[in-house]
């Protein structure tokens, strides 16, 4: 193993990964029967060729549980060993939270569980959050799940957004490590002044209760995005935040083994890698097969790379998430 991890007190090691996607997939050819588009149009503009779509009987907690089971098995622990479960999602089955359902499904009776919402940056925000519980000594084993079912909130008549999104889940297990900290550096950012660039806003209808007292009742509007603004934001802010995280890790770009970005758009991935001077063969991507799975995209791509043998123990990964909020962030970590 490359001995570059930080020394000192209790640190973290990321020792297991898992992923899950719905069994039904929707390729570009099938999508062209729903809206006016084509495989060529989608592929050339986004790099996406296919996406997995949850069926009405599927649930977010189910996908999250399946990914978690795989991560726990790889980590060599049991659900009873887990102290904390963080579910990064924006599309829970229950507005009150779905992490506790995953906890119950797993039988992780000792674990406290909660949801964390930071859209497509959610997994990285969850990674940093979980690490703090470990570093303070509060918990030893943390399960982090990133999962989203965006198909629930897509306008399937809007070809500018419906071609982008897919459903899925990914998970990692983080464990306390006394021989070094494998989370080498991170940087998190938010800018609410640009919230309107990517939204899934609440939509309500007034309902009179009695006399002049009314309440708001409703649901949510479909995903709305200003594509050009999001692209401009990502290609300028993401390289900067990766460089900040590298600085905190006392590392240079040349020391990175892999660049793992939120799988949003192939053009964004290529532009960020180019600005960081990272060759394309160091960029981990599975965007073509899954589309943008929001908080699931980073752990889903990580799990595939680990299980294929591409990512090896000790490899240094620079990861960055970006999306609605607007939120973005980067973390530099060693696998295993």
Automatic annotation (TrEMBL):
Checking SUPFAM superfamilies in the record gives: Thiolase-like
Q: Which residues form the active site?
A: 120, 262, 292
Q: CDD domains per the record?
A: KAS_III (cd00830)
Q: What is its main location?
A: cytoplasm
* Annotated catalysed reactions: (2S)-2-methylbutanoyl-CoA + malonyl-[ACP] + H(+) = (4S)-4-methyl-3-oxohexanoyl-[ACP] + CO2 + CoA; 3-methylbutanoyl-CoA + malonyl-[ACP] + H(+) = 5-methyl-3-oxohexanoyl-[ACP] + CO2 + CoA; malonyl-[ACP] + acetyl-CoA + H(+) = 3-oxobutanoyl-[ACP] + CO2 + CoA; 2-methylpropanoyl-CoA + malonyl-[ACP] + H(+) = 4-methyl-3-oxopentanoyl-[ACP] + CO2 + CoA
Name all Beta-ketoacyl-[acyl-carrier-protein] synthase III C-terminal domain ranges.
247-335
Molecular functions per Gene Ontology: 3-oxoacyl-[acyl-carrier-protein] synthase activity; beta-ketoacyl-acyl-carrier-protein synthase III activity
Domain Beta-ketoacyl-[acyl-carrier-protein] synthase III N-terminal: residue ranges: 114-192
Keywords, sorted A to Z: Acyltransferase, Cytoplasm, Fatty acid biosynthesis, Fatty acid metabolism, Lipid biosynthesis, Lipid metabolism, Multifunctional enzyme, Transferase
EC number(s) per UniProt? 2.3.1.180
Keyword Acyltransferase found: yes
Entry's Gene Ontology cellular component terms: cytoplasm
**Keyword Cytoplasm: yes or no?**
yes
**Role according to the record:** Catalyzes the condensation reaction of fatty acid synthesis by the addition to an acyl acceptor of two carbons from malonyl-ACP. Catalyzes the first condensation reaction which initiates fatty acid synthesis and may therefore play a role in governing the total rate of fatty acid production. Possesses both acetoacetyl-ACP synthase and acetyl transacylase activities. Its substrate specificity determines the biosynthesis of branched-chain and/or straight-chain of fatty acids.
Comment on protein domains: The last Arg residue of the ACP-binding site is essential for the weak association between ACP/AcpP and FabH.
Q: How is this protein named in the record? A: Beta-ketoacyl-[acyl-carrier-protein] synthase III
Q: What is the lineage of its organism?
A: Bacteria, Bacillati, Cyanobacteriota, Cyanophyceae, Oscillatoriophycideae
